[in-house]
Design goal:
The structure is a single chain. The chain is mainly α. The protein binds zinc ion (ZN). The site of zinc ion has 8 residues, from loops.
Length: 99
Amino acid sequence: MTEAQREQRRYALAISGGVCEVCGRPLRDGQPQGAHRIGNTQANRAKYGDMVIDNPLNIGYTCSLKCNGALDISGNPAECIKLCEAIYTREALRYEVKK
Ligand SMILES: [Zn+2]
């Protein structure tokens, strides 16, 4: 695991509040796993780019493989576009010049 991936995991755990995003079960009771909303596949990387796939907003925290699957929005273009919009808005803030 790279430092960037560890950072991503810490962030995801922090924003999840320690509970599964799908069922609300405390993560420590299950087998915590980071779940990609837009799936981490070569096809999706080619389509959306690494910035989207690896973005903290594209990762949710779930308690199990079953809940992990429930976060996948790859097959829902409207949800994917909404998520991309949120990611691009968030990324833009990092480069915003103070007025
Ligand atoms: Zn769960």
